[in-house]
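Page 47, continued from p. 46.
Same chain as before, 61 aa.
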Amino acid sequence: MDWREIEKKAVGLNIKHPDRYAKTDLIKTIQRAEGNFDCFQTPQNSACNQSNCCWRSDCLQ
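Result:
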């Protein structure tokens, strides 16, 4: 997902000033806002079982 798509998703979740976040931090904030684990690019991602996560392909790279 590119930066514009991430920002748009953040704005849709009423996250203020998404342009002030680093990409990883913004994605984790979005994950929390959606009620999910904020696990993007953390050590446990190699054992990820979140197959429906929209960040999965970026995260596992």
